[in-house]
Amino acid sequence: MNMPGNIFLVGPMGAGKSTIGRQLARALHLPFEDSDRVIEERTGVDIPFIFEMEGEAGFRRREKAVIDELTARDGIVLATGGGAVMDPDNRRRLASRGLVIYLRTSVDQQLARTARDRNRPLLQTEDPRARLESLYRVRDPLYREIADMIVDTDGRSVREVVGYLQRALRRRGTLA
User: Fold this and answer.
1) Which residues 6+ apart lie within 8 Å of 16 measured at CB?
2) How many other CB atoms sit within 10 Å of the CB of residue 39?
3) What does the alpha-carbon distance between residue 74 and residue 3 come to, in Å, rounded to a whole number?
4) What is the spatial distance between Cα 44 and Cα 42, in angstroms, rounded to a whole number?
5) Using CA atoms, how far apart are residues 5 and 101, in angstroms rounded to an integer?
6) 25, 164 in Cβ contact below 8 A?
7) What is the arithmetic mean of pLDDT over 117-125?
8) Which pLDDT tens digit goes with each residue over 18-47?
9) Could you tell me the CA-to-CA distances from 161 to 13, 16, 128, 138 in Å, in that order?
10) Ranges of each domain in the chain
11) pLDDT score of 1 more than 80
């Protein structure tokens, strides 16, 4: 398949950006990148450790630099961190450098998918549901602002979502 440009996946934690992105990239024969994994590889530590040592602001500075670098490449599928859209420069770069797909999911689904995941610093709180609801209220409009496509992942398998995306990209003329 011929795939010009980039595909950027945005959405909340637990929406499936990394899992779907990896499978979509494989199906499209494109390299896959995950901005959170790139940060971990470069620092040699996990994201909770970065949050602990540098705070969220320190992590966001690193994320901004990585997103700038990765979105400047051509012909990749990129899974971004859930909070990447909080930075206006990230939103501008994502929107102008590729096709942005918002993988939307409900708070219930996020809770189910992240229940045992200790690698989510923003969920290390007494009330993860309240935190996710708060993040959704702030971030959903930002995801929608830059999205070229919105795809609901609730109750859908990775295979279903990837198949849907391939068909949608073909209809849009993005795939040969």
Assistant:
1) 103, 105, 113, 153, 158, 161
2) 20
3) 10
4) 6
5) 13
6) no
7) 59
8) 999 999 999 999 999 999 999 999 999 998
9) 16, 10, 26, 25
10) 7-169
11) no
| Residues 6 or more apart whose Cβ sits within 8 Å of residue 45 | 53
> Which one is the CATH code of 7-169: 1.20.140.160, 3.30.1360.30, 3.40.50.300, 3.40.980.10?
3.40.50.300
The stretch 70-78 carries a mean pLDDT of 96
DSSP 8-state secondary structure symbol assigned to residue 81: P
Other residues' Cβ atoms within 10 Å of the Cβ of residue 136: 18
Question: Dihedral of the CA atoms 105, 108, 113, 118 (nearest 10)?
Answer: 120
Q: Which amino acid is at 101?
A: I
Percent of the chain scoring above 70 in pLDDT: 89
> E strands within the chain?
7-10, 32-34, 77-79, 99-104, 149-152
Q: Which two tokens stand for residue 174?
A: 């993005």
Q: Which residues pair with 149 in a beta bridge?
A: 101
